[in-house]
Structures are given as C-alpha cells and as structure tokens.
Amino acid sequence: MNAEKILKDLYRKKFNYNRIQITPLPLSGSARKYYRLHAGNNTVIGVNNEDVDENNAFFYLTEEFKKLGLNVPEVYSTDKRNKFYLLEDLGDITLYSLLNKKRKGKVITPDIIDFYKRAIDELARFQILTKDKIDFTKCYPRKSFDELSMKWDLNYFKYYFLKPSGIQFDEDKLERDFNNFIAYLSNASSNYFMYRDFNSRNIMIKNDDLFFIDYQGGRKGPLQYDIASLLFDSKADLDDDLRTVLLNHYLKSVRKLENIRRSDFMKYYYEFVLLRLIQMFGAYGNRGFFEGKAHFLQSIPYAVKNLESILKKIKISRKIPELFRVLDEITRNKKLQEYKWNAEHKELIVRVFSFSYKDKIPYDISGNGGGFVFDCRAIPNPGKIEKYKHLTGRNKKVADFLKTQPAATKFLNESISMVEQVVESYIERGWRDLMVCYGCTGGQHRSVFCAESLASHLKKNYKVKVILKHTRLHL
After folding, report:
1. Range of the domain at 451
2. Is the pTM here over 0.85, yes or no?
C-alpha cells in the first residue's frame, strides 16, 4: 500500500471526506516525506516517516508542548504503526522566507526583527518551562545532549565535510582535540530542553502568529546551543550587530523565567556556536556532497563567513590546536567560495572537464546532479604513439593527429551536437548549470582534446559562461 493511499485513508477516517486531493511537497533535509491533503477548504499536512522512534518522540513532545501553551502543530491522526500521521497545516511562510522577501540588501526591516524577538521569547519558554515537565527518556535519539551526542556531531563533520572537501588533517591529533573540546563543553549547565534545530526555517508564520516545527530531535541540554542555531543560521546571514542585539534580548527573556548570570552563559556561548557550525558543515556535506542537494552546498560560504568571525572569539583555541588549524584552513579555502558564486550567478554556466577513468568522475558542485559524461576510450589514443606520449591534448600536434582520425571526428561532432541541444534548451528555460565530462584512460590526450574543442565551440557560438578544467593536468 503506497504512502498517498494510507494518508488519504487517514484523512477520510478523521474528517469524513471522500474527494481528497494530495500533493507531494518538496523534500527537506530529512528522510521524512511530506504531502498536502485537502478536500474543500480543509487542508492538512500528511507525513510519512519510517523511523517510529523519532515519530513517537515527536508525538510525545507535541502533547507536552500543547499542555504548556506553546505554539506547535496539532497532530490530528496516526496510523496503527505510527509511520504515517496528519498534522495541522501551518502554511508555507517561514521566518526565513519572509526575511528574504523583505530584506533590502543587508538591511533587515523592523517587522522582521520583531518576529525574531518574539521567536526568541518563545525559545526561552521552550527551554525553561519544559525542563521539569518532560520525561527526557522519551526523547530521540538520546535523552540528553551528552558527550556521545557531541562526538557524533564532530565525527559527522570529519567524515561528511572534511574528507570530501579535501581538507587535510592529522586523525590522531584531531581526535584528541575532539575529546578536549567535548570535555570543556560538558562543564556547561545542561538541565534545559534543547530544541536542537531552532532555525528560521522551522519557525512558521500564520495569521501573524509564530508556530514551531521540527523539534523531534529535542532532548535535555544547554541553553547556548539553540540561540546559536538561530543567530548563526547560515543563509539568514545576520550581521554581528544584530546578533548582539538579539542575544541581549534572549538573555533578558531567559532571566524573566530563571535567574541565570550572563557571565555563566557567555563562558561557553561561542564554543557552542562553534559546535553548531561544525554540525552544520557536516549536514551540508552529507546533504550536498553525498545526496546532491544543491541548496545545502550553497549554504557553505555563509557558514564559512560565520566561522571566520567566531574563531576570533574562541577562548580554548590552545586546547584544540589541530581542530583550530583545520577550521582556519576552511576559512581560507577558495574552492568552498564557489558554491555561493554558483548560487548567485544569473547566466548559464557550462563546466567542461577532462578526467582519467583511473580517478572518479568529477563532482558536480552545482548540486544539479551532473550532466554528460562522454567516454573517449573508444577513439584512437595518441598516448600510445611515442612522439605524442609526452604531450597533451592541448598541444597542436596531438589535436592535428586526432582531427585526421574519422572515429575521433565523429565522436567529437556528435557529442558537441548533443551538448548544443541541451545548452539551447537550458538557455530558453533560464536554467543555470550544465556539466560535461570527457574521460579517457590517462586523462591527458583524448579527453583533453575533446574538452578543449567543446569549450572553444561553446564560447564562440553561445552566450554562456564556460569553465574548463583538466583534472589530470592539474595534478
């Protein structure tokens, strides 16, 4: 039985409607699948999540939050296995979408700042009013944000961001720094509810009221982490002056509910900001590099900018030298800045690569899923001819040789014709990214010649930005 039928059945039983429309919603950063169901004017959100433990934590927390008057969505109905459920539809306007709609360059309008302050007031209530009301053993995936939770985040960063980014590190030294960092953070008071993912995309605005979603990973933890998540939300791109204003507002909101000294809070604040940034880099790497979701890659430069600012404020840098060195290298990595440029460019970019099949096929940094990969190994190989062996496909002698080979000429012309068809379609549709790769055995002759020829042809005949890279010639 498919997800849409199960959700329709739930809707039918709950609301007694028969003519039900269902529309899949865009995928998010999680494995959960969302749908919008409606019959007449009655609209709800349907969710399919195979992780029953996560669902049960969500249902439990929602019930407790409702008792305390916190604005979270109503859970209307669940199936017997707790893998499908219906939620109150809070619309499509998030604090993040409204921020982007109303901001004027770097200037954030007063009404948006007011929404931030209201969200911060509610954050304090989530964290403090619930701390003695929640059975944290029902939280997911752990009851508290403990040493193991922090270790997971740090390793997530190491394996899903550092390694695919090509950032070099000493594994043993980095592990020791992870342990030192965790030991320091473990000294912070951690007796509060930690929302875990309190950011502008998880704050909904409906009829001028704020509602809060995606708290199923919440658990017992420190105060600092959630406000860090909101203020250093990468693509929200808040400036440091506004962050200071909002942080001061947060501390006032907290002190209305519990007597907390500013000095005690600030002792660990920037270190928790750093931990949150590290976790976000891991998430961007996982969702971007491994799952090919472009908008996560485009968040990386904003996170780099935040990291650069935070590193100047960390008090324990001497205790984590290898981690600090790695993080500093991230701030100086020019390749990571390409993602922001990729997000902001307006014309079609065609990235043309030559590569060796001894290596991996080049990675598509646009997140567009790649494009063409042409295998040049079927055409004659100049690399097997002594006088061409030490040359490359950029050399005129090699190019002249390949132009005399009918198989090479046919292959090149047909590949160019295929690319032209797609380029023209992309330009007409306003699409922005296309990747074309030519591969051969050594990545020196045939693939280089074809990539050079295509790049030259596109530059002469189309108004596009062509980026040409020969992966083996750069080794």
Report:
1. 346-470
2. no
